[in-house]
Amino acid sequence: MASGKNPLFDTATTLGKILAFLGVSAICGVLVAGLMVPAAAVTGSAANGSVQFFNSLPSELTVSPPGQVTKIVASDGSQIATLFNENRTPLKLDQMSPNIKNAIVAVEDYRFYEHGGIDMTGILRALVSNVRGDKQGASTLTQQYVTNVINENLVAQGKDADVVLNGQKGVGDKLREMKLAIALEKQYSKDQILEGYLNLVFFNRNAYGIEAAAQYFFSVDAKDLSLPQAALLAGLVNSPSLYDPSTHPDNSIKRRNLVLDAMLQHGYINQKDHDAAVATPIQLKVNPPKQGCQYAAQAQYFCDYVVHQIENDPAFGNTVDERDAKLLRGGLTIKTTLDSRLQGAAQTQVDATAGANPDQWSASLVTVQPGTGKVLSMAQNTRILKGQGKDFITSYNFNVDSADASGNDLGGLGGMQPGSTMKPVTLAAWLNEGKPTNQIVDASKRVYPLNYPWKTTCQKVTGAFDSSQTSLGAADDLQNDEPQWYRPMSVREGIYQSINTATFASAAGLNDFCDIQRAADAIGMHVGTGKDEKLNLSTLGNLLGGSNVAPMTMANAFATFASNGTYCTPMSITDVVDSQGKRIGGQAPSCQANAIKPDVAKAVTNVLQDVLTKGSGYNIKDDAGQTIKVGVPDAAKTGTNQYNAQTWVVGYTKGLATASFFGDAFKPAGHKGTDVTINGKYYKSVDGAFIAGPQWAYFMQKAAPLYDHGDFDAPPSALINSAQSQPQPKNTDNGNGGGQTQAPSAPAPTQTKPGKGNNP
User: Fold this and answer.
1) What is the pTM of this model?
2) Does 2.40.170.20 match the CATH number of domain 86-278?
């Protein structure tokens, strides 16, 4: 059967064109009647119905700020990253080149400054042209702006499917657009409408608004657009795909020249300027925007951490979707705590630490400011995307809890085994009971059987070290790294030499084993899944670092010692400002003074200073075998897990606390750090002082002088007991102090491995 079209109404025929002309003329009659004739004065039911229909259309348009680019910046204002759904940077009209203003008016609506929102002359001209077979639009710039505003509002509400494109508009849509355009002209000046249009209009999926378009196609600001550049962009809005100069240069140059013709015709340029512009070839300098933390100019993983702070904060919306919409469309400026000076030094250091890395060893540094909780730097030796300069690609953030980076793209790894960097927690509990650091404990004791009478007022202590009870679930007798350390010694010596049996003798000498848990809670210790899950110190293996803890948690815990017992919640955002410059959020320091007693914190620091001068940290050496000195008062603790696969130094000055990690962040047992060559150097075993140690020391050499680096406060003599322990040889780490995570069903703690290692 032939086509179902009625030839009488086929617009391809002369009669069809006449009927189409008459039909649209009728619409114009409705419009004129609605605008110019009071409904009560119109005679005839048809005319009255038409006027009523027009009058029923909305006459108010909500002009909301369009989607804009959100910027994440460091504390000095330097850019970290941008986030957006629509790449748009709004400008004032006087910040745009006169060329683009003149070009868009000349080609899209040369009577723009003469009409009141709709152009009846233009409509009639378009009707006649269309009847002749030449397609021509009649929408004014104001009408186009109305359409763009309506569609932008729909997109902002997540109603993309309701967007009506030009070719899909019906008569009702056009009448609504006209009425809104007339109302808009009464509310805004011509320049305000033109400014809004140029900021809103779509040029390319990478460029919304004239500033983004100028940057995308020519890598210039909109104020610097030349005449041929402006004419090309003005021509592009008619059909961004058809006239894209990157993919259809011939179409683009023809359209550009048509715009130049219009500018000449309507007096915006003279013949000489016209001819010179027409003769100018298209000279693109395409600059695709790169948005998201994966393209961050610095601190990719810190950027992701910040994004998740916003996404998890109800202050920015009732749901994650609402918060994401604010991030991607709100034009926010998020000022963070990141110190670019420290970040650059940290990134350089972690990259150098691992160097050429075929075995994909992990290295990370994270720094927190004592007394504020500000996260000042966060670096690791990986990149998120291929081609970014490193062969180790991962989206996992080594430094934070999994709950702090658990979005669509990135995930927090959930921490690593901190080994002997956990030992200062037991020391803090010891000091909190008023016991001095130089008190002698029996570090020869290796057996803590299942029925051992721990003094506890809270949870039952689980686990045991007793080779005779292994069939009942106990671990083998507690071991140190070398045999000469099974002897009485001071608690101080047990810490700076990192002796496992001394830590357990200290725990056994407490009046209440629960004081260890209280000390851990006070300094914010928790497992790496998130802050709501406490680190369970009633499991004996965890005294030696058997459970995964995030480096940022470790740095912040030691920051509590550095600040004389003041615990601060980590913070990463100081201010969030909306597109209008109004402050809508930000974090302030949230600190608790005396989370642990100031004198206790001072005494912990006093002992940890010895780690670097005569203990396990003395082995933090350069390639020439010389001990690396930070050069200011400092304190630290080394740590190594059972397999020498996860190694640490966590240390601090008065102004900075930094956790340094080296190892395999993914495989605590499956990638052993023994008999390995790393960065061109052979290691019989990798311990905290060997690689994580120099990484920490070299970074702190650069960073520490930028912050408070004065002397630590002295502890009271009652917590030292004046008589100093006898000096011991500068030593390897003798406890190995690691520990692998205990299976949930086993009551015994993780057993450390003898004979290997230098930094527990």
Assistant:
1) 0.84
2) no
